[in-house]
Amino acid sequence: MDRVPSATGSVVALSGGIGGAKLALGLSRVLAPGCLTVVANTGDDFEHLGLAISPDLDTLLYTLAGVADPDKGWGRRDETWTFMRALAALGGPTWFQLGDGDLATHVERTRRLAAGETLTAIMDDFRRRLGVGCALLPMSDDPVRTRVRTAEGWIDFQDYFVRQRCAPAVIDIEFRGVERARPQPSVLDALADPALRAVVICPSNPLISIEPILAVPGLRRALAACRAPVIAVSPLVGGKALKGPTAKMLRELGGAPDNAGIARRYQGVIDGLVIDTMDAADADR
Known about the structure:
6-stranded parallel beta sheet; Rossmann fold; 285 residues; 36% helix; alpha/beta; 3-stranded antiparallel beta sheet
């Protein structure tokens, strides 16, 4: 697996897509160049139309590069949709939107993966070409696929999240293949770096964005052993998610959709949880 050189006095951020990407962008703006390493969830990755799609990695890439769609939060700014219109005219599946510029990312990634390159190497090249100064790492170069179980059975995460718009109640979640996945070596290097100042868990959905990262063998242990403080930022404000179905999923899986519930999900990993002033009464819990 590829190693990306780490910087001294660094900060590591664990992130999912839109919500986490915004904090990662803020960190990139206040830290010195080369001092931030962003570790992305790849449990959302899937194959669609024969292409390798990495939604969280790409959202982070576009956000950090300043080319993300400011309204949607995902995809590229000033996108065009000629491909999707042509696909619809042919009767193809259009439930997962791929803009013309975004499509180039998926096509090039798929070509290079087929040629034997790792996801790490490809994304490192993409971020340099787009002018992103921080390291952007997948949690693993091995495939991990998040799946959710509903009343209709097990379905792929993107089917639940995009095609069904998170409507079905979630009974269970699995990260298929995670037991065989190896952590990206540069992630372990960054967590063991004596100069590491902090680890930040971004306000992404714990269930489907952060826990896939923690489930990769060795990563939870590396975080627990980390000398630097590990601080999570809650994705909930006033019991509601900043973005996405976090509160809904927590309720459906029997957990409390509050900051105490978030803290319990990260027990043994974090040293502190940042919450909104609106939720100050949660601090003692």
